[in-house]
Amino acid sequence: xxxxxxxxxxxxxxxxxxxxxxxxxxxxxxxxxxxxxxxxxxxxxxxxxxxxxxxxxxxxxxxxxxxxxxxxxxxxxxxxxxxxxxxxxxxxxxxxxxxxxxxxxxxxxxxxxxxxxxxxxxxxxxxxxxxxxxxxxxxxxxxxxxxxxxxxxxxxxxxxx
Length: 161
Known about the structure:
The chain is 41% helix and 9% strand. The chain is mainly alpha-helical. Among the domains are: 2-52, Double Stranded RNA Binding Domain; 116-161, no CATH class. It has a two-stranded antiparallel ribbon with strand order 1-2. Strands 3-4 form a two-stranded antiparallel sheet. A two-stranded antiparallel ribbon has the order 5-6. A hairpin with a 4-residue loop joins strand 1 (2-3) and strand 2 (8-9). The chain starts with a strand and ends with a helix. The model has no long low-confidence stretch (mean pLDDT 91).
């Protein structure tokens, strides 16, 4: 391999790449994303456009495809999971994630996601959309769960008489 611009012979293609990278920007331009060096500006621009493509995000911003996940996390236009702090393209993607990754912390009736079991239980206790045990006040996600709670809390009282 030979650098025609510097009139220098090198032993290998990797040595030529090192040569490009080691020279001043005015002699051999570098990619600002990956720091790879190039013979001239045309080669650098061609590399930049093919190796680091941009995509127009659904929020309208041009984003490097390799930075899309960071964009979702840092943009106020995209929802973030309150549990694992991962950003998503839209509410549909966040809901799908929540259903599979955090099902135990999700109210399937109200479609709310909670950070902890304590928050979820408090929701069941306070929400008018969930039944409460008349004996102990325990909030339940649904009527079938309430029936089980009632059997556990009331049956022992009648069984002991």
